[in-house]
Amino acid sequence: MKARVVASIPVGRIQSPEDVANVVAFLASDDASYITADAVNCAGGLLPY
Questions:
Q1: Residue at 8 is within a domain
Q2: Total number of domains in the chain
Q3: Which of 2, 4, 17, 26 is the most buried (most CB within 10 A)?
Q4: What is the mean pLDDT of the chain?
Q5: CA angle 20, 40, 27 (to 5 degrees)
Q6: Boundaries of domain holding 21
């Protein structure tokens, strides 16, 4: 079952807490200072719709 789920994820692995933490850290950094009112999909390429 796990192999089938992982195979369906475009990046080829299950998301980790660090994946989300990296997005949060980026958005909180000066590198993201010009980003406003946007939604960031942190789902490994899976589309929620």
A1: yes
A2: 1
A3: 26
A4: 90
A5: 65
A6: 2-32
- Return the pLDDT at 38: 84
The reported pLDDT for the residue numbered 40 is 86
Q: What is the per-residue pLDDT across 21-38, written as a single tens digit (0 to 9) for each?
A: 999 999 999 999 999 988
What b-and-e string marks burial along 12-45, b requiring 16 or more CB atoms within 10 Å of the CB?
Answer: eeeeeeeeeeeeeeeeeeeeeeeeeeeeeeeeee
Which two structure tokens, joined as six digits, stand for 4? 């089938």
Determine how many CB atoms are found less than 10 A away from the CB of residue 6: 13
The tokens for 38 are 């946007």
